[in-house]
Design brief:
With about 400 residues, the chain is α/β, with parallel strands linked by helices. The chain contains 14 helices and 13 strands. About 40% of the residues lie in helices and about 15% in strands. Bound molecules: pyridoxal-5'-phosphate.
């Protein structure tokens, strides 16, 4: 905006205006029960959290395999820190491509049965940058209704037309393609392997068939993968994306695809090109975590077993992953339930709109290899007590009911 010198707001007024705007906006989200706030967590233990007074058991992390604290993972990080320094010092295309990237990318490509892989600064930057680099005006993106925000943000940045299909509904996706595929140059179907807020799996094989039939590309975000789950057929998925920050206990994101595809992304994704490479220790710990996984495959089973113990206790449908949604409906009820659990020493996240659709506010429970049986029994007892006190009955955790 342009002001003549005389009408220019004074510095003080501008500050006041901004503070006032933010304060009022926060009051509104507070009123809706949607205000977010940070809390400090020491993270000394994989799933126990100490706040200076009391120890809590956390079912709110994504460290599904307990690898953040694995001694071999920590040792690898220490060695990388001493050898290569704290930061990468530059973007990967300048001088930040330290020697830990090549073995990490080779391993990620092999993991997904692809000939190429490319590591980004985070999972968010991976999806955001990849979609924006591949798609453009005149192209069509078809995304599952429940995909992660970074996929939608990338789609919006790309300038392509974005259409959403009902959650895990391949038929609906097909209808959209049949109606409009002919009007666009390229088409990309995007979904998640395991949905972050619902813990259910996408029908990958039927989406592969659909993509082939309609000359579309298929991209699958596997951010919550690596825990035992119905194996997605790796065959026919054009691009896998994922994160090093959840089951692998480190930080960063990646795509795995045919080598020319990853090379194209390297040349075009702005979130890759214009951002500093990962700290060497982040690559080293992710690589070590992948090695631990190969050596200790039983780590992948336990989170699912623990999740089933809880769904069975509440007669909820068994989930396909380490993520259990406890859907309570209103945002305030979800927050109240999580507060009562905290009073009993249990930390869970209350997930509210806009992260999930209206009236599906929920507790999102996640299970880790690091949880003991006692931890899970304490959760079940606390949840029974809190639900009883609030006189709440649970809606089924099945996402299909509201999608
Ligand atoms: C967490 C998450 C991401 C982002 O990964 P980060 O490494 O945390 O940035 C992307 N997609 C999905 C589905 C996620 O759950």
């Amino acid at each position: 905006m342009c002001f003549a010198q005389s009408e220019m707001p004074t510095k003080k007024e501008t500050m006041h205006g901004l503070t006032q705007f933010c304060t009022e906006s926060l009051q509104e989200v507070e009123r809706l029960g949607l205000r977010r706030a940070l809390r400090e967590v020491d993270g000394m233990h994989p799933v126990e959290v100490y706040d200076g007074e009391k120890t809590f058991i956390s079912f709110a992390g994504n460290d599904y395999l307990g690898l953040r604290h694995h001694p071999a993972v920590i040792r690898a990080g220490q060695q990388a820190l001493y050898r290569y320094g704290a930061g990468a010092g530059a973007s990967r295309l300048v001088t930040g491509n330290h020697p830990l990237y090549a073995p990490l990318e080779a391993r990620l490509a092999a993991l997904k049965g692809q000939t190429g892989a490319l590591v980004f600064g985070s999972g968010y930057l991976t999806n955001f940058g990849t979609i924006a680099a591949l798609m453009g005006e005149g192209d069509l993106i078809l995304a599952d209704k429940l995909v992660h925000a970074c996929i939608l943000d990338g789609a919006q940045l790309s300038g392509a037309e974005l259409k959403r299909f009902r959650h895990n509904d391949t038929r609906h996706a097909e209808t959209l393609l049949r109606q409009s595929r002919g009007s666009y140059r390229h088409a990309l179907i995007v979904t998640e392997h395991i949905f972050s807020m619902d813990g259910d799996c996408a029908p990958i094989a039927s989406l592969v068939a659909l993509a082939r039939e309609y000359d579309a590309w298929l991209m699958v975000d596997d951010a919550h993968g690596l825990v035992s789950a119905p194996a997605a057929s790796e065959e026919g998925v054009d691009i896998w994306s994922g994160t090093l920050s959840k089951a692998l206990g480190s930080y960063g994101g990646y795509i795995a695809a045919a080598a020319p595809v990853t090379d194209y992304i390297l040349n075009n994704a702005r979130s890759f090109i214009f951002s500093t490479g990962l700290p060497p220790a982040a690559c080293a710990t992710a690589l070590a975590a992948l090695e631990v996984l190969d050596a200790e495959p039983q780590r992948r089973e336990r989170p699912l077993e623990l999740a089933w113990r809880v769904t069975d206790a509440f007669r909820l449908p068994r989930v396909a992953s380490a993520i259990v949604p406890i859907i309570v409906g209103g945002a305030k009820a979800a927050v109240e339930l999580s507060k009562r659990l905290k009073g009993q020493g249990i930390i869970v996240s209350a997930i509210r709109p806009p992260t999930v659709p209206p009236q599906t506010a929920r507790l999102r429970l996640t299970f880790s290899y690091a949880h003991t049986d006692q931890h899970v029994d304490a959760l079940i007892d606390a949840l029974k007590t809190a639900l009883g006190e609030m006189n709440l009955t649970l809606k089924s955790g099945a996402a299909a009911e509201y999608a």
